[in-house]
Amino acid sequence: MSKLTATFGNMNVDWENRLDMPRLREQRLARLNQSLAMSELGSVLSFDFHNIRYMTGTHIGTWAMDKLIRFAVLPRGGAPVLWDFGSAVKHHHQQTPWLDADYAASHTDAPLTGHERHHNAVGPVGPSVGDSQIGGGARFGISTLRGTIGAGAKRAEDVAKKVYEVLAERGLQNEPIGVDIIEMPVLFAMQALGLKVVDGQQVFLEARRIKTADEIGLLTHAASMVDAAYENLYEFLRPGVRENETVGLVAKTLYDLGSEHVEGVNAISGERCSPHPHVFSDRIIRPGDPAFFDILHSYNGYRTCYYRTFAVGSASVAQRDAYKKCREYMDVAIEAVKPGATTADIVSLWPTAEEFGFPSEEAAFALQYGHGVGLSIWERPIFSRYTSFDAPETLEEGMVFALETYWPAADGWGAARIEEEVVVTATGAEVITKFPAEELLVAGKRYYTTGGNLSTLRDSQSHINTHTHAEAEAKREG
Q1: What is the Cα–Cα distance from 306 to 420, expressed in whole angstroms?
Q2: What does the angle CA 103 – CA 132 – CA 93 come to, to the nearest 5 degrees?
Q3: Nearest-angstrom CA–CA distance, 43 and 182
Q4: What is the pLDDT of residue 120?
Q5: Please, are residues 235 and 68 in contact by the beta-carbon 8 Å criterion?
Q6: Average model confidence (pLDDT) for the chain?
Q7: What are phi and psi of 123, to 5 degrees?
Q8: CA-CA 20 to 30 A from 126: which of 103, 190, 434, 441?
């Protein structure tokens, strides 16, 4: 196994050189500083949960992902300043020494290949409450809670003031400040103070585009957990199981293995496969059903997007053929992945929307698709016939992305969906999603007849699979 994609246990040990979390934080911040330095911005301000984690190496639970309550600013050439929710700041003071003003500033320009030195501060570090000293740190502060705190509390104005003071200390208050996402009252309050607010999402996306060795290791480990979930799912699938039960099984497997967040399990079966609704239901799985799943979860922040398709009990000829077509489009795409190739090169190998029953590429968006995977599910690069010809992106070593293909069955209700996550290496693509997908797998009980095993390649209408039907067809044709 290559060094890039080696996997280890969840624990840290003294006898094996495993993933290096201090190095992960150091290199992420260095990449973000590089991206900011290459831009025309004086600073970047983030309310996005994942961008804040990338910048500061902090996490307060997945419950906060959609709240927009915490925010962090990175001044050009400086260290990040984080304003966080309630008692989380006291925890940061005790447990996140890399946010200390002096410590963070000393590591800002660390090379991407360097290791963070041992630092084991105990007790409060970083700026004290109300401190406006130059440097990084964790400070108390909340936004408007998506507008639920009334305008009279002046939360938006307070956020703008806090950010302005940090920038003014560094002489950056007149430089453009890039923001990823923002509540409108906060935007207006910042503009009222004279801050020039512009798009900052591109700075974060550029920094996160190429993954460090530790990020690749975390992504690979996350995928290995889904390998295990599919093993349990394959053993569990049978007629009578409901889609929502499979979601519960997968979630338990992942949480037992150390997942911090099971974002979703897209469980689709039977006639729900075509068209693809992108959401599970309480449908009961029946003999001969196609069933496909997308498992999305997070391990130490790093995500998966990982489809597999099964037939339950047996597969029809139409389902087998759809799977074969889906796999062929996947294989030619993976074979074409290499440094220097573009997203347009890859999507040119995939069918047009009209070829598989859709009126336009917009209507078929995300069926033949690819996307970066990291702290978010959809990062750069993006692969789609809808967008990649107009805005092609060049593949580079160290990118990690998922490629996903889809093909509807000729019977009008089944379909196949396959997804592989790949790392771009110097010589091509390395697949890190390992659960078997070369051929269509049949899950469920094996049945036996007086003539031996019941064939797993059969139509769901039993009478069509008999000799009597074959003889009747022959007579009609004769």
Answers
A1: 6
A2: 45
A3: 15
A4: 29
A5: no
A6: 90
A7: 90, 180
A8: 190
Q: Give backbone dihedrals phi and psi of 326, rounded to 5 degrees, phi first.
A: -60, -40
Torsion of CA 176, 80, 216, 406, to 10 degrees: -50
Asked if pLDDT for residue 37 goes beyond 80, the answer is: yes
**Cis ω for the linkage preceding 290 (within 30 of 0):** no
Q: Which has the higher per-residue pLDDT, 138 or 116? A: 138
* Predicted pLDDT at 470: 65
Looking at residue 289, its amino acid is: D
CA atoms 93, 94, 99, 105: torsion sign: positive
Q: How far apart are CA 236 and CA 443, in angstroms?
A: 8
Confidence of residue 4 (pLDDT cuts 50, 70, 90): low
Q: Is the pLDDT of residue 128 over 70?
A: no
Write the burial class of residue 31 (CB in 10 Å: 0-12 exposed, 13-18 middle, 19+ buried).
buried
* Distance in angstroms (rounded) separating the CA atoms of residues 147 and 151: 8
Query: pLDDT value at position 369?
Result: 98
Among 320, 429, 418, 336, smallest CA distance to 369 is for: 418
CB 295 within 8 A of CB 268: no
SS3 assignment, position 452? strand
pLDDT by residue (tens digit) across 329-340? Answer: 999 999 999 999
Instruction: Name the pLDDT band for 394 (thresholds 50, 70, 90).
Output: very high
Average pLDDT over residues 200-213: 97
| The dihedral sign for the CA sequence 34, 35, 36, 40 | positive
pTM of this structure: 0.91
CB 193 within 8 A of CB 162: no
Q: How far apart are CA 323 and CA 318, in angstroms?
A: 9
The predicted pLDDT at position 246 comes to 98
Which segments of 337-399 does DSSP mark as H helices, in order? 343-347
**Alpha-carbon gap, residue 2 to 277, rounded angstroms:** 37
Q: Which helix (H) or strand (E) holds 290?
A: strand 290-299
Q: Tokens for 384, please give them.
A: 């789609």
Q: Which amino acid is at 106?
A: S
For residue 101, name the pLDDT band (cuts at 50, 70, 90): low
Strand order in the sheet with 428-431: 379-383, 369-372, 400-408, 415-425, 428-431
Nearest CA-CA partner of 266 in 399, 377, 346: 377
Domains of the chain with bracketed CATH? 21-209 (3.40.350.10), 213-443 (3.90.230.10)
One-letter identity of residue 282: D
